[in-house]
Amino acid sequence: MAEYYERESLIDALMNYTWWDIDGYEIDDCDAKRAYIEDWLAIAPAANVRPVEKCKWENLVRCGFASVEATCSACGKTLIYKSWWHFCPNCGARVKKEQENK
Ligand SMILES: [Zn+2]
């Protein structure tokens, strides 16, 4: 499975490493380090991705014989809860692992 990184977070992480030039001298010029990183990232393929939003079902309240209402923590919508939902049908947020299949 492909993994994606947020560009600025990756640049920040790489800026924290000690960099050495080809002659063995430490590169301590932040602008030079950033320029190297941006040059490398410029040749890497980019993808438009949207972060996966996570949610939990909250305020579970029994309503009727076999129905339970629950509120999505991401969008705040209250729905008739189905235990097999892995996504909120209103906003599409993914249910956190610890609450799946309960
Ligand atoms: Zn939602």
Percent strand equals 15-25%
The percentage helix is 10-25%
Order of helices and strands: HEEHEEEEE
The count of domains is: 2
SSE arrangement:
Elements: H1 7-15, E1 19-20, E2 26-27, H2 30-43, E3 54-55, E4 57-62, E5 68-72, E6 78-80, E7 94-95
Parallel strand pairs: 3-7
Antiparallel strand pairs: 1-2, 4-5, 5-6
Helix pairs in contact: 1-2
Bound molecules: zinc ion.
Q: If you had to describe this structure to a student in words, what would you say it looks like?
A:
With 102 residues, the protein is of the alpha+beta class. 23% of the residues lie in helices and 22% in strands. It has helices at 7-15, 30-43, and strands at 19-20, 26-27, 54-55, 57-62, 68-72, 78-80, 94-95. α1 (7-15) packs across α2 (30-43). The radius of gyration is 23 Å and the shape is rod-shaped. Bound molecules: zinc ion. Zinc ion is lined by residues 55, 72, 74-75, 77, 88, 90-91, 93.
